[in-house]
């Protein structure tokens, strides 16, 4: 019942090995080199009737091509007692003794290698193969025949969460995480192995896995996340306490605990976030590049720091806007575009623009330049070196500075689709004009697609700085949106989402690459 | 027909000489060939899946209609009408059954984190979970790059143990026992803070306690000399000190290093301001309230309960508690 071919093929292999298959496949089926392809084009036709379109097969024992439809390969097999032949189009082996095509693991591996080589010739980097169950999985699946088909109109994957007493901030973050496609796939595909070194019932990653099971169980009653709350309070003591809390803080704390638990409680690796490859890092960790340019010698000092989210200022810009159109004004972002850099931002793009704008660190903040070995004024610029798969944005609506003690409720528009290309480190130094214009400076169209993101979750805050309530919008089934208000899940339109105030915005990369 | 490879020029010449009918039939041939090959590929896929046994693996016998999203106004996506149903859960700490919407405040007390949490719980934590809580606090410092104020405040709390000299302790004990009943309750293991004439306990019991604690016979002064504790003028700060003193004298074996939970309950008003500051220093908003707006506690501070339990019940919570 598996990929073991048949007895006849087995005895052929033990007698003659896989050489003939290999050669046939390399030249006439896959065409792994230019020369091979030419040979394939020139010689692939039936030796008896000269046709090439009639399901051609190649004999494994000798040099003979015969068509299946015209029964020529059959005649050859019977007369010469050569019972094995290969289909030229796909490389499948036909056994005349069995009277059927047979599938052999060893030969399939050879075929796969050849196909990869041939694909490389055509510029295809990696091929996609559908998942196939192993023997063990097959057995498991057969013994458990119940399946849940998640159609477009199914509520499986949606679930309400009970408010345990001021825990709506937790509920919203849980909803956002449950609907992070890559995270969901990781846990539902059972790819998690627990590395927690203590009592396994205290592992937050395992609890997360359990949460996914709850969300996809098909139950319609809301879930009570009391175990989760207990775990978070145990592992992130600073968050513990029955009081209203900030969803953004909770999000970062949760990622931190998950990150720690993914690698077990190994003190060494936790101090070196660059070298971790846990699922949290794979999905959420990006690299933020900080460039400090010395004004005297133009020497650049670059550092790259990991980040899990980007916190964006909303108030009016605190820097004196020297929006001159002089020769050295890569800083002044094109007045001709009409960007109100002196005013408050009104869109996510405005915020990101401001975030990645080079800023002049005033004369009171001179730093020592390694290039010219003196204290000089400098400009600093933040750009994205590496984008995470999930980009989270935090709009800083709560000001606790000396001036403000209020919530900034101004409407900040955010798009459904976001292109992060203008904010990448590779675009640093180029004036905003070219980054706004559509085609200048784009060398490879593939690289544009790499930076495109799609909104999938929004967390909103209703209320004041002292007290309030959190709700979330999440995207399911590619383009359906739902509003999550603790235990109440209702349908929402994409316009509802885009019109909402927005506090935490979650974007998912549209195209994922193989590594 | 023999396949002879043509150069590009020869091919072009050949193509130019073909009539449109022939062109039509040639393109049809090519299309047929491609279509046949693709169909063959699909057949192989299905054949292989059958042979290896996983073709219909994803077929479900379950009724899909059961899980359809409902789109009616007044109902959620599961078709339910939103009701205030009481959900229950079990506390992982104390294994008690309680209402889900009150779980967070319960857990706070149960884990010994609230200001008014039971002394027992915080003692429990101090004795068993101290090591863990220390490590956790250190870890939190790691990622708290923006919030140094917060963590340093916490550290300050931890490092304020109340050290009492043994001699002074004895004096304190005596003074206390002069004023209060002092009988240790069987099930809560706490001292009675009522007056020396409290009806719940006998003089005999009081005598026994004094004997065991102070190691000598004390004759209780006559009732007329009792120092009456006037409940209504008794203020909160004193009660706190009283409680602390009593616990110290009762629990002679425990260390004087206050656990984070203990020291957090410094007298009266300073906690609230500390907490408020803690919140103010971080750049975030506070929310998470449920829709109910009743407070659990009776308003005002005058209803001090001088009963057996040590925890104060009269301190109002911070206004943000909704």
From TrEMBL, chain A:
UniProt keywords, alphabetically: Hydrolase, Metal-binding, Nucleus, Protease, Thiol protease, Transcription, Transcription regulation, Ubl conjugation pathway, Zinc, Zinc-finger
Compartment(s) of residence: Nucleus
Domain UBP-type residue range list: 24-121
E.C. number(s) listed in UniProt: 3.4.19.12
Domain called USP: residue spans: 159-510
Primary location: nucleus
EC class (word): hydrolase
InterPro entries, per database record: Papain-like_cys_pep_sf (IPR038765), Peptidase_C19_UCH (IPR001394), Ub_carboxyl-term_hydrolase (IPR050185), USP (IPR028889), USP_CS (IPR018200), Znf_RING/FYVE/PHD (IPR013083), Znf_UBP (IPR001607)
UniProt keyword Nucleotide-binding, yes or no: no
Swiss-Prot/TrEMBL catalytic activity: Thiol-dependent hydrolysis of ester, thioester, amide, peptide and isopeptide bonds formed by the C-terminal Gly of ubiquitin (a 76-residue protein attached to proteins as an intracellular targeting signal)
UniProt family annotation: Belongs to the peptidase C19 family. UBP8 subfamily.
PANTHER family to which the protein is assigned, alphabetical: UBIQUITIN CARBOXYL-TERMINAL HYDROLASE, UBIQUITIN CARBOXYL-TERMINAL HYDROLASE 22
Protein name, per record: Ubiquitin carboxyl-terminal hydrolase
TrEMBL record, chain B:
Domain SCA7, residue spans: 168-235
Low complexity bias (residue ranges): 258-272
Pfam families according to UniProt: Sgf11
Annotated signal sequence range: none
Gene3D superfamilies linked to this entry: 6.10.140.1270, Classic Zinc Finger (3.30.160.60)
InterPro entries noted in UniProt: SAGA_su_Sgf11, SCA7_dom, SGF11
Keywords: Activator, Chromatin regulator, Metal-binding, Nucleus, Transcription, Transcription regulation, Zinc, Zinc-finger
Domain remarks: The C-terminal SGF11-type zinc-finger domain forms part of the 'catalytic lobe' of the SAGA deubiquitination module.
Protein name stated in the entry: SAGA-associated factor 11 homolog
